[in-house]
UniProtKB/TrEMBL annotation:
Keywords: Membrane, Transmembrane, Transmembrane helix, Transport. NCBIfam families: CDF (TIGR01297). GO terms for cellular component: membrane. It is found in: Membrane. It holds the Pfam family Cation_efflux. One of its GO terms (molecular function) is monoatomic cation transmembrane transporter activity. This is Cation diffusion facilitator family transporter. The chain crosses the membrane at residues 24-45, 92-112, 132-155, 176-201, 213-232. Residues 25-239 form the Cation efflux protein transmembrane domain. GO terms for biological process: zinc ion transport. Its main location: membrane. It is a multi-pass membrane protein.
Amino acid sequence: MTSESAVATTDDAHSGGGHGSNKAIIAALAANTFIAILKFAGWALTGVSSMLAEAIHSVADTGNQFLLLIGGKRAKKEATAEHPFGYGRERYVFAFMVAIVMFSIGGVFALYEAYHKLESVLEGHHEDMGRWWWVPMVILVGAIIAESLSLRTALRESDKARGKQRLSRFIRSAKAPELPVVLLEDSAAVLGLIFALFGVVLTKVTGNGLFDVIGTALIGLLLIAVAIVMAVETKSLLLGEAASPQAIAKVRAALDATDGVDRVIHMKTLHLGPEEILVAAKIAVSPRDSAADVAELINNAEAAIREAEPMVTSLYLEPDIYLENYQPQERPEPPAAPAH
């Protein structure tokens, strides 16, 4: 979700979509709730570890979808004196919580279950799935179909938002975390189910529980890897990313086209939320302009910026006289600690 990635050709690509995000989340929530129940039933009948790992995976995903919905709702709260720029970043906070849940409840639990099952296998316990051996296979095949349909919904919604970007770049550049998170979750779900099916089938064919261990461990490693990717990308959003190059270009063009603005001396942007951008810019005006002229110029520039880029919700323009040798003031280095 870093801003250095290529930019899509549509404004929706900047944010990652709003209504489409909720549609993908709800589709994933419904699929995961139903699938989790089936997986627990399959594990209860056969005792297959990879089924339990996948059941916990689905529970974690279900909780994650609730977190994303809650984050989206809380982000709509009105600004307050304590939070004057609003609560848009709540969506980033809850997306980061999703990564934590997937890492701990999903990935770490699966690895623990694999280790526990490995001890049993090494002690010489024979894997007997009983007369219900076919139940996990049916459940897993059905779950693969259901998760694939959920993934297809997420892909369709992301197609509307990402424009001509490659999917990997969309996941890195999207300012709204919901669609990238659901895409990663659904992709991990399909792969995890394939790993579980691999473990169940080979365990039944060979009678060797080691294949169940391998399938469970692969699920755990997969979830941890996806959780790390989520955490890294969401951390970038939490720290504060600049607006996309396309949005910055629109703002700069609006300023350049405003009568009385000689040039943009320097400008900084920051996403306060997926669809909220803060712009702070120093603009050069004529030294002959009166205070009234400068005030009118700034009003015109603000109107032009908001028309060019509607996501600009906070805007601060500082008029100045341009000097050829001007250098933007950087934050000073903190004073060195006194020697002891």
